[in-house]
């Protein structure tokens, strides 16, 4: 079969060369194997796709897999292996969570330090209490917890800044004496300011109410200060007045005739002037937050001018704390 194919193909090739190209169709059986012929060991692929034939598991895979059986190659699964039971103490060397999370719960850590209290000025979280008023000129922090008296003036009440005595009508509320101490829930102390300013008589209590129709009077030479841990309600009258030329608590006396008022940070009024035998002017008024008024002039003839007014003095901070300045005395011939 081999020689016969060669001759036929050679003849056809010669004819194509002479014709400078050709095409030919062959009978389908021209290049087919003849019956009974042998390919001589040459495989000719089939025109149709090959079909794989299953190999029976009659022998070990070593024949198919290059000498390695499944027992050697696939001894472990390619899939991830499940984790075995491992305790926390082995993996991270730490106690179990029930032991680690021993900190207090949020309900304890974030609790309101002022819970159950009414704090009009807000809560002081660092001190675990309500905010307190911080007054100028004195401090009552050391006795704050001892201020237990609620002063409710249903009768006319008097606070003496020099002695510490407190009376409501005929009733003694706080006895005199004991500066810097608490008596009957009321604290009293005397604070020295210096620099020409008077001393301060400080009263402190839990609350104060001056009812309508009643009067709270301060008496004594020291300036007056009241501090309360709670509310102050003023519905009636509060007085710290002078009597004639004698100053009220913390104030400065007025001058005698032909004299200036008591020295008061340049706020004292000046005395009046005289012209002739019967022309006498008035003294000038004392100043404090504003200037005082000038003294009245004497008229007639050449006249006499009034005393000069005292100058404004002091500050909004009330440091130091003092009352009004005294006026000058009228002229006297």
List segments where confidence is low: pLDDT < 50 over at least 5 consecutive residues. 1-46, 50-71
Overall SS class: mainly beta
| Proportion of residues in extended strands | 15-25%
* Secondary structure tally: strands: 16
Run of helices and strands: HHHHHEEEEEEEEEEEEEEEE
What is the rounded Rg? 59 Å
Kindly state the percentage of residues in helix: under 10%
Distance between the termini: 174 Å
The averaged pLDDT comes out at 79
Main sheet summary: 5 strands, mixed
Shape: elongated
Please, how many helices?
A: 5
How does this structure look, described?
The chain has five helices and 16 strands. It is 10% helix and 18% strand. With 333 residues, the protein is mainly beta. The relative contact order is 0.09. Among the domains are: 141-239, no CATH class; 250-333, no CATH class. The strands form five sheets. The chain has a five-stranded mixed beta sheet, with no helix packed on it. Mean pLDDT is 79; it is low at 1-46 and 50-71.
């Amino acid at each position: 079969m081999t020689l016969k194919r060669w001759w036929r193909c050679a003849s056809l090739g010669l004819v194509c060369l002479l014709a400078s190209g050709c095409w030919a169709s062959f009978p389908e059986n021209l290049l087919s194997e003849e019956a009974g012929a042998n390919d001589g060991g040459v495989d000719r692929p089939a025109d149709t796709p090959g079909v794989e034939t299953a190999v029976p598991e009659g022998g070990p895979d070593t024949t198919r897999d290059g000498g390695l059986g499944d027992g050697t190659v696939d001894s472990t699964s390619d899939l991830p292996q499940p984790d075995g039971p491992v305790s926390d103490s082995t993996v991270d060397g730490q106690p179990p969570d029930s032991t680690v999370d021993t900190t207090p719960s949020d309900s304890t850590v974030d609790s309101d330090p002022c819970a159950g209290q009414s704090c009009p000025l807000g809560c002081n979280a660092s001190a675990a209490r309500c905010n307190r008023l911080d007054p100028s000129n004195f401090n009552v922090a050391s006795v704050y917890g001892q201020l237990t008296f609620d002063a409710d003036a249903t009768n006319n009440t008097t606070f003496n800044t020099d002695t510490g005595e407190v009376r409501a009508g005929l009733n003694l509320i706080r006895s005199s004496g004991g500066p810097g101490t608490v008596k009957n829930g009321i604290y009293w102390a005397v604070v020295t300011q210096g620099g020409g300013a008077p001393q301060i008589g400080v009263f402190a209590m839990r609350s104060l109410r001056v009812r309508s129709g009643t009067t709270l009077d301060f008496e004594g030479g020291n300036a007056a200060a009241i501090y309360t841990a709670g509310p102050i309600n003023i519905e009636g009258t509060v007085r710290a007045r002078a009597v004639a030329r004698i100053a009220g608590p913390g104030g400065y006396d007025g001058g005698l005739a032909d004299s200036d008022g008591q020295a008061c940070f340049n706020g004292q009024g000046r005395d009046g002037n005289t012209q002739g035998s019967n022309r006498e002017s008035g003294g000038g008024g004392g100043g404090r937050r504003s200037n005082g008024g000038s003294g009245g002039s004497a008229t007639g003839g050449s006249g006499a001018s009034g005393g000069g007014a005292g100058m404004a003095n002091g500050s909004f901070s009330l440091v130091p704390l003092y009352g009004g300045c005294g006026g000058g005395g009228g002229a006297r011939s």
